[in-house]
Amino acid sequence: MFAVYLAGGLVLVFGPGRMLIAWLHHLRGPLEHTLEASVGILVLAFALFLWRSRGEAPEQPTRRRFHTRASAFALGAGIMAVELPTAFMYFGAISAILTARRTALAEISLLAVYNALFVAPLLAFIAIHRLAGERSRRWIAGAEARIRRFGHLMLTGVALAGGVALMTIGLDGLLVG
Q1: What is the DSSP letter of 28?
Q2: Angle between helix 104-132 and 135-176 (nearest 10)
Q3: pTM for this structure?
Q4: Exposed/middle/buried for 80, CB within 10 Å: 0-12, 13-18, 19+?
Q5: Residue 11, pLDDT above cutoff 60
Q6: pLDDT for 24-51, tens place per residue?
Q7: Which pLDDT does position 66 carry in this prediction?
Q8: Hey, how many other C-beta atoms are within 10 angstroms of the C-beta on 168?
Q9: E strand map for the chain
Q10: Residues of 26-65 as b/e, b for ≥16 C-beta within 10 angstroms?
Q11: How many alpha carbons fall within 13 Å on the CB side of residue 159?
């Protein structure tokens, strides 16, 4: 996950990132507000979808008997590659790095630190599992159950709040501006 996310960030920072930031800074007026309102409506639709699917039983993962480092790497890379386009926080960090106009070494270092912090909780789970052994399975299973129970509701709430905020900002700009 770290490698794929870092690679994606490096591509944006040293590739089209500066051009995209410049283009976004030139969006003004009705186009900017229409985009804000449109994205807000899409996020609200996502929140509605999440809310309507809350009663569905989550699919139980099938347990594999063998795990390899290559399969773990492929799974992590696949998840991160699919998740990258929705990584608004990461795009915000990349935007801050680009607008700070630092040296290439500083930009790479900032991206590496961000990604290290991003994977830190995963590394903590691995460390707990390694140090506690079998005793950690019960704790991890309990954490997974809590995440399954409350994660869906929390994601729905965050999507609802974000969608309302974006739509309100966009509509306010269209109506007032």
Answers
A1: -
A2: 140
A3: 0.60
A4: buried
A5: yes
A6: 777 778 888 998 899 899 989 988 998 8
A7: 56
A8: 13
A9: none
A10: eeeeeebbeebbebbeebbebbeebeeeeeeeeeeeeeee
A11: 18
